[in-house]
Design a protein that fits this description.
Length: about 250
């Protein structure tokens, strides 16, 4: 399983793109501005999109993805998320006010978009690739995702503040090779981090002490301008950590 980082920033500007990962050629994990770097041919090959939560930086390319290539596909794009996230997208995005209801275009019997509710902690198998929604602790309903292939697993926290379920999931995966965990704000902005339910370094450093050894840890969702300071403050972590990079590729 090949996982390419299309975007991993907590914002935009100077080449930064927001969260999205391309899994092989046919799966997107979140649909932030990183999706806009793909060619039309690459967009048309995407069959499944998994969304962690409804915030704009994780969904902003989804409407334009559908508008750009849906008419050139012979099957609907399948949108996977927990029911609470799907309901938000139905009510507030694909509602004809913000964007067309592609679950009914061109017709309800042959739509461009199909919703596929996920159950928490229930693995979904797609051609030998197993994807599991795990809990996240954010200001809206949210998940992370555990991806597993025959050779190992890869875990993405999604947007989250501290909570035991993330570390329980990481430690319970016997073949976990990579953990991607967000850390959005510097410690001086911890009040913003707490209010918006994001990690800041001191809080993440404490939680990294719960992680089993042998897992590579990558930091995502760093807010623009604070990246260097966040990584300096994370130097106190009990294990090595590195900033996730746009364009980085994982083979799992």
């Amino acid at each position: 399983m090949r996982i390419e980082v299309l975007g991993c920033s907590g914002g935009i500007g100077d080449g930064r793109h927001t969260t999205s990962f391309l899994v092989d050629e046919d799966i997107l994990l979140d649909a932030g501005s990183g999706v806009t770097t793909l060619s039309l041919a690459a967009l048309a090959r995407i069959r499944h999109v998994f969304i962690t939560h409804s915030h704009l930086d994780h969904i902003l390319a989804l409407p334009l993805l559908l508008d750009s290539v849906a008419a050139h596909r012979n099957e609907p794009l399948v949108l996977h998320a927990i029911p609470e996230v799907l309901e938000i997208l139905k009510d507030h995005l694909f509602n004809w006010r913000i964007w067309p209801d592609f679950a009914r275009v061109p017709s309800p019997d042959a739509p461009f978009l199909r919703y596929a509710p996920l159950a928490m902690n229930a693995p979904l198998d797609l051609d030998g690739r197993q994807i599991t929604a795990i809990p996240a602790h954010h200001v809206v309903p949210a998940t992370g995702f555990l991806l597993r292939s025959a050779t190992g697993s890869w875990l993405f926290s999604g947007d989250t503040d501290a909570h035991p379920a993330l570390w329980d999931a990481a430690n319970a995966a016997p073949d976990l090779r990579h953990l991607l965990v967000e850390c959005s704000f510097v410690d001086a902005q911890k009040s913003i981090a707490h209010a918006s339910r994001h990690y800041h370094p001191a809080r993440l450093v404490a939680d990294l002490g719960k992680l089993k050894p042998g897992v590579e840890v990558w930091i995502s969702h760093l807010k623009p301008g604070g990246e260097a300071r966040i990584m300096e403050e994370l130097a106190a972590a009990p294990c090595p950590v590195a900033a996730l990079r746009q364009g980085q590729v994982f083979q799992v």
